[in-house]
């Protein structure tokens, strides 16, 4: 009994217990539990039920009492970030807003390579500290699980440094960090061979070390004209799958092709998709690949949003992530971005919250997060409102007053 506790009562509890993984989700389909509480056993949800019934059934356990006007939703999951990096790209942002193109900025010393140089210059401990700092910001906004990519090292030693920094940061933050190897971000300028040769080095020298040191189980690649073509990615992904990596793809950001790679290799997700058209949408809809919209990149670059409405209507599973990175998506505010995406793409509140909770968990292959249900991790956010619609209505400005991760209060403004 010592590990049991009850949180509540809540004016509204959104559990998403039986909500579908794919396709549209209308607000009318949501089950909104009134005057409910959450019974937690250690780090796991034991049950959700009427608060008064829980208190009556468990009269001697710890109560975490909250104002009766509160709303609770599952802890949010940011399934695509780059928060392990050194330096800044404020110069790029100013140049882009002044009319410079991506290629012009890169020629003048900006772009991804600029962040690579700054990240390589940072020590491992500096990257640990920076990652913890950014993870803490996200945690206080209700992001209880955060995917974190490497990809600014772009050599065997520097990618290992990044992944080790993410692993160390994970032990020092209450948020859960999910590491992803993005050594295939771009071909580094200091690599003398071609793209295929670079991926061959990464596959044979870096990936075995990642497996040996248990630094990541996930692999990402940027399929794009300025990065890696479909052709060179195939043998790289094949080698990665043989080593047991789960796959994801930076797909269809500026040109199509990446979504084809994602479907062919049965990736967990295809992320970006701003350039996806009807063919790509139907291809994704016919697969189990989760489509991940990154509205922060659209806002940062001033380009079209992921066709989220079309993807959902076609039957896709749609997750929404922040893409927090120093170049194209420096905001890092998941709910603000998701709410803005909803305005332009006409997404229901249910679709938005699903996209940052259980559907985002699905994009990472996580099966015990993103819903409030028996057996799931006790990760949830409490908001000072009796109406869940205020969360998206206030476009990210309504912050949680309490964040619970693994049954423990990790942030409280109460």
Features:
414 residues; TIM Barrel; 16 helices; 18 strands; single chain; alpha/beta; Urease, subunit C, domain 1; 6-stranded mixed beta sheet; 8-stranded parallel beta sheet
Explained architecture:
- With 414 residues, the chain is an alpha/beta fold.
- It has 2 domains: 4-74 and 370-412, Urease, subunit C, domain 1 (Roll), CATH 2.30.40.10; 77-363, Alpha-Beta Barrel (TIM Barrel).
- Helix content is 38%, strand content 21%.
- The chain has 16 helices and 18 strands.
- The chain has helices spanning 51-57, 90-97, 102-107, 112-121, 124-140, 156-172, 195-213, 230-242, 258-264, 278-285, 295-301, 308-314, 334-345, 349-355, 358-363, 389-393, and strands at residues 4-10, 12-14, 32-33, 36-41, 44-50, 62-65, 71-74, 76-78, 143-149, 176-184, 218-222, 246-251, 269-272, 290-293, 318-320, 380-383, 402-405, 408-412.
- It has an 8-stranded parallel β-sheet with strand order 8-9-10-11-12-13-14-15. Strands 3-2-7-16-17-18 form a 6-stranded mixed β-sheet, with no helix packed on it. Strands 5-4-1-6 form a 4-stranded mixed β-sheet.
- Helix 5 packs across helix 6.
- It is globular, with a radius of gyration of 21 Å.
- The two termini are 26 Å apart.
